[in-house]
Structures are given as C-alpha cells and as structure tokens.
User: What shape does this take?
Amino acid sequence: MAQLLQKIRPRFSTSLNSAATLPWRYTARRASYLFMTATMAKEQELAAAVDTFAALEQRVVRAIELLNREREQRAAAENQIAGLREQLEAQHAQAATQRREIEELHRERDTVRTRVERLMSSLDAIEASFTQSA
Assistant: This one.
C-alpha cells in the first residue's frame, strides 16, 4: 500500500514534504474500497470452500449410497447362494437315493435272469425227455 501511495502522491500534492499529501475523503474511500475488496475476496474464498465442501459432501453421500446398495446386493446374492446350496444338497441326496434304487434293480434283474435261465434249462430238459420218449 505504501508503494501505491508513493505513485499517487505526486498527483495530489505540490510537495512531498507537506503534511496533507492526500485528501481525507480519498483515503477513506480508498480504505473502504480495499476493505470491501478484501471482504469480497474472503467471501469468494469462503464460497469456494463451501462449494468444495458441498461437493465433497455430495461425493460422500453418493459413496454411502453406493456402499449400501452393494451391501444389499451382496446380501441378496448370499441368500441366493444359500438357496442354491440347499437345492444342490437335495439333488445330491436324491441322486444317491436313485443310485441305490438302480443298483437294487440291477440285482433284481440279475436274480430274475438267473431264475429264467434255470426255468429255460428245466423246460429244455423236459422237452428233451418228451422227444426221447416219443
């Protein structure tokens, strides 16, 4: 500010040594202008800081919403996985039961085959005895 006054002084005074180099009214206006300029700059900085804080707050809110949505989706996926695991276990149990039934049916088939073969051999023996006696 002193440098600014040095530049302005020659315009308003006839000598640099005079006591009243600048009129009072000009100095008050200049001080008021400088104060207002500084106040406006601080307000702009404050507004920028508030805007920055508001933007940061918005980003935090969006991040929280995203996190909550991801948690809900994860819980739904875990529930779905649990249901699928139960279905898989039920299918494994059913497959084991069906495997046992198939094995039992194979044994019964083998038993029936053996009986049929014995009956066929008995019939062949009876037929052979009828053909020899006839």
